[in-house]
Amino acid sequence: MTRRRAILSGSTFEEQIGYARAVVDGDRVHVSGTTGFDYTTMTISDDVVEQAEQCLRNIGAALAEAGCGFTDVVRVRYLLPDRADFEPCWPVLRRHFGDVRPAATMLECGLADPRMKIEIEVDARRPAVS
Question: How far is Cα 121 from Cα 40, in angstroms, rounded to an integer?
Fold first, then answer.
C-alpha cells in the first residue's frame, strides 16, 4: 500500500492557501512551486539570484525531510515573470542540477506576488531503502 505524507515548511502560504511544501507518495516526491521567501522570517530579497538560492534552500530542506536530495530530482520547472531574469540564475541552477541533468522547463508567467521573481518546482524519486 502506498503511503502518502505531506511535508510542511511553516510557510504561512501553506496554511492560507491549503497545500503542502511537498508530498511523498511511495518513492515519488512532489515539491510544490517554491519561491524565494525565507519562511522563518517571511522575507524575500529583491535580487532574482538571491531568490533562486533561497528557493533551492527551501527545496533542499523539503527533499531532505522526504529522504532524498537534489541528486534524486527527475524533473524541474522554472517559472519567472520576466524571462530576462532566467539567465542570471543559471550558475546557481547548474550548481544544484548540472550533474543530475533532470528534465526541465522554463515558463514565463505571472506569479502570486509581485515581489516574487522566480518559482521552482521539482519532482524526485526517493532511493530504494535496503
Answer: 20
20 secondary structure, DSSP code: -
What is the C-alpha to C-alpha distance for residues 116 and 124, in angstroms, rounded to an integer?
Answer: 24
Q: What digits encode the pLDDT tens for the residues 87-106?
A: 999 999 999 999 999 999 99
Phi, psi of 52 (to 5 degrees): -60, -45
Of the candidates 75, 128, 126, the one whose C-alpha atom is nearest the C-alpha of residue 103 is: 75
pTM of the model: 0.93
Instruction: State the angle between helix axes of 86-97 and 48-66 in degrees (0 to 180), rounded to the nearest 10.
Output: 30
DSSP, res 14: I
From the list 117, 125, 124, 122, the residue with the least C-alpha distance to 37 is: 117
- Strand 73-80 relative to strand 103-108: parallel, antiparallel, unpaired? parallel
Q: Which three cell numbers stand for residue 56?
A: 533551492
Say what the pLDDT of residue 129 is: 60
C-alpha closest to that of 55 among 122, 119, 123:
119
β partners of residue 31:
22, 122
